[in-house]
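Working notes for the structural subgroup meeting. M.R. asked for a predicted model of this chain before we commit to crystallization trials. I am recording the input and output together here so anyone reviewing the notebook later can reproduce the run.

Input as submitted:
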Amino acid sequence: MKALFPPLSIPPAQLAISKKGEQLLVWCVIRKKHLVMTPEEWVRQHVVHFLLNDQKIALPRINTEHLLKINGQNRRCDVLVVDGYGKPVLIVECKAATVALDEKTLLQISNYAQATNVPYLWMTNGIDHYIIDTKNPSELLESFPSLK
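Returned structure, recorded in token form:
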């Protein structure tokens, strides 16, 4: 199990994990339901708990699997954080810890940014993290931006 769900470089989350038959499930505090625990979901749930517990972002401001329309097609971003007025401020693209963050990931999250005009992007596989200010995308941010 450790190979599929390795320790991450973000604070560990107290996830509610259960088993149904042979399948591991995790309780999603955002969607209020059990989800199949995949390696990507492992990262996404840690990101959600980091945003809630460490960044102190209120639960109603965080969406997961948020629907976006891009060039007339439906796409879903992993995590979307909005400000107090509902305006998008951060999009997070999560990959499994074993998946490298590459140009394909950057293109994917860049398309999300164009569709939402969001100021910050965060690409993560739970181990490597790239935080981008869309106003100055050539320089990665050294620390997490204030989203309050």
